[in-house]
């Protein structure tokens, strides 16, 4: 990582900005909000944009990126763009078509990083979440190593500069790393990671294999009522974060982000609010460490 916590070198020689802008949004939020937020993020200084086929906002994110290229704010090579292979495209013959769909929506020639979104396969088709007549998800059985070989072909085709995984545990990572004939190993593993879920064991393993850990949910778990107990603690209201924020005259969000950077983790900051987006990029201006958090 550079001395200013700005870039991390990947095992394939490419560099990933250590702070990224996340573009996932709740279903009820209009896609246009993501487009405007992405523009604001680029204007504020974000150069790492994290998205996915399943987020269903790549068209809007692409418009935002291209508008900032058109007005001279950035060049294409300044932007590090991540997309992800969705679970309904896991069959090897389908994987590249998912990436091609993303690129078509984005109007880009390549992505900088392409990830297997989940180590979980679902029935191929146009439905993001295919369900049976009882409302249960319809899964598919696809070998992880076969999916990885399809990812390698995406890199060979020049459609993705780097390839990695997301939401993988150690055992699943080892399946890829130990695959006979492995040509490219995963450069990163993107997982939920924050003060309440620090992923220390997984981080140590990834570091031992020169795999970068990328943290999503760094400012707290998405509090979707379908998945999260609404009585669970709100991370940014944590008293320890609050005390550190007061001590360093920074927001709890900046403390949470800086915590990840100091661990050697690439961190995604997600917000649709202009003031929060502009504040999050200020993490590089923090001149002191926060070694209290472990």
UniProtKB/TrEMBL annotation:
PROSITE patterns: ALDOKETO_REDUCTASE_1 (PS00798), ALDOKETO_REDUCTASE_2 (PS00062). Keywords: NADP, Oxidoreductase. The keyword Lipid metabolism does not apply. The active site is at 55 (proton donor). The keyword Acyltransferase does not apply. It comes from the Eukaryota. One of its GO terms (molecular function) is oxidoreductase activity. The record marks 84 as: Lowers pKa of active site Tyr. Residues 19-284 form the NADP-dependent oxidoreductase domain. Substrate binds at residue 117. SUPFAM superfamilies: NAD(P)-linked oxidoreductase. Pfam families: Aldo_ket_red. Belongs to the aldo/keto reductase family. This is Estradiol 17 beta-dehydrogenase 5. It comes from Sciurus carolinensis (Eastern gray squirrel).
